[in-house]
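agent> Task received from the user: take the single chain below, predict its 3D structure, and emit structure tokens. No templates, no multimer pairing.
agent> Plan: (1) validate residues, (2) run structure prediction, (3) serialize to tokens, (4) report one or two observations.
agent> Step 1 OK, no nonstandard residues flagged.
tool_call: predict_structure(input=
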Amino acid sequence: VELDLQRSVQAVLRELSTQTPALQSNQGMWRWSLHRKVERDPSKSPALVRILLRELEKAESEDLRHVIIPLLHTVMYVLTKATGITEELYQRTYAFCTRLLTLPTPYCTVALDCATRLKTETAVPGTLYQRMVIAEQNLMNEPYPYQERVFLFVDPELVSASVCSALLLEIEAAQVQQTPEACMRHVVSHALQAALGEACHAGALHRKLQDPVQERPPSIPLPSPSITFHLWTGKEQLWKELVLFLRPRSQPRLSTDLEVLDLQGLRPDRELARVSVLSTDSGIERDLPLGADELPAPSSPDMERAGLQRKGGIKKRVWPLDFLMPGSWDGPPGLHRRTGRPGGDGEVLPGVSRLHTARVLVLGDDRMLGRLAQAYHRLRKRETQKFCLTPRLSLQLYYIPVLAPEKPAASRQTELGELAAFLGRVDPWYQSTINTLCPAIHKLAEMPPSLDTSRTVDPFILDVLTYYVRMGTQPIYFQIYTVKIFFSDLSQDPAEDIFLIELKVKIQDSKFPKDGFSPKKRGVAEGPGAELSLCYQKALLSHRPREVTVSLRATGLVLKAIPASDTEVSGSPHCPLPAAPVTDHTCLNVSVTEVVKSSNLAGRSFSTVTNTFRTNNIQIQSQDQRLLTLSLDKDDQRTFRDVVRFEVAPCPEPCSGAQKSKAPWLNSHGEKEMETTKAKPKPLLMPINTFSGIVQ
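)
tool_result: status=success, residues=696
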């Protein structure tokens, strides 16, 4: 038994250490098959933990850091589900995690999270399993009131209908067998077996719980989380689903602060603004009448007026400015994280806990991520107008690439997987587990559908999705960029949009009319492309602003926000890419296809050369009446034509440029004045969860 498990573990390690595995079809299968062996026979769990600990200690001694986090995640996943683990194995795992705390991120961050969970499990056996099932299945539990839900979003315009229907049937077939009663039986059975150990008579316990008795020691499954399937319809859909998730199941209506949202149409932003009301309240608590803090009885006629009364006066704690703007929402987790909830977020506001965790999982290519960035930006803007989601909800974003089947003559397939390739380069476990899932999804879609939901399912894809949302706890932050677009038609208002991955510029053949334009003399070759004026701020090691203005003739240019090579991943002297978001280090990679004119005996000729540079922001304008076409995030639906000028800059966090007041000072007339300064806007960063974050 131990030899078979050892071979499976070695296969996982070989896959992590090999850039091009010999069998592409087996990629990602070894980890899944390893966990399935333990699920079918729980008595193998202690042997597997011992093998994994030996490999972890070997990797530590030989400094093989690229396998530490994958092996650590594998150990923790086994320990969460197993019941027969000895105290000695728990102590060895905990001691190993504490030794990793001296390493840089992400090793110390992952190790701290694992050590915290191990300490909880050793204090009360079975706690990790119990909390996970209660939260994921939304079981009503007063001591542990946390709730989670996985939102699976698929855009039917980007993913084929066969893939959408196959995934939906797979999820329904697995979850139809998971009733709340069955999940509670699993929780009770697991808790008793974990606490009593060998003294627990598993067969008698299952008979009492009315579970079917098996010949071998019964395996207690870990139910898959609650997953809801959604077809992507627009950038407002994410906000709607999250608000509906916060609605208590026992209430047919939303709570008071959520009722103002019009879920049918989601009224325009200007209608959500707060209306100013004349107030005679001094703001001093002693000026309140006696008993003003007491709530009237529900049947009292004063109950209707109670909603208009001020309660608490100045003794109530005011939310800090950082809380009023969502800049601290889901920021990078530090080493001192609160415990007690699934994501470790604890309390965001005094007295308000994040009881809900929304795990948003999107499937698709780079175009889907661009649309997700639009929805994320829209959601953050709404938070500045109605601060109702941030204190109550922890938002976690996940991404699984689903690209079109690769064809021999098609190169667009690899172009649309740029962000997935980046995640695979910086996180080897993401590459091995998630980036290899696309062929399996297409294979599932080609299989004939089975409408029999009572069949016993053993779904590989659903298990991988579940493993990802449970163990993918380390976010990688991506800068969102804003672009302001000016058109040739002066009567048309400038447009504003955002992009996450790429902005591509093409030169149109048509020109725009301009008063007083004098055409060039005949016989002068104009040449291909267009004359462009570029004004940008160069990214320097010193981070000092340096403006550069240049004019050149180009046939096109591309602005990329994702590093394209391994050297850019680890960082460069001009624009390092840190593991945590640092605003000074965000930069765009600009590639300009410049036209070079040369003269020879045969006349003038033109050639092209590609120049690249890095910048924080850039302004580009057409100088010779050539119109431009902009394409955002490779999405044909997000194309702008007849453009003469555009400006690109890091997208600021909504409401992050608020004014800050300083101490009062005396002016020349002896009167007190308040000095106000405008704070530097924080950049808007969109996190995508991976297993380890960026491994340096």
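agent> Step 4: summary for the user.
The chain has 20 helices and 19 strands.
agent> Done.
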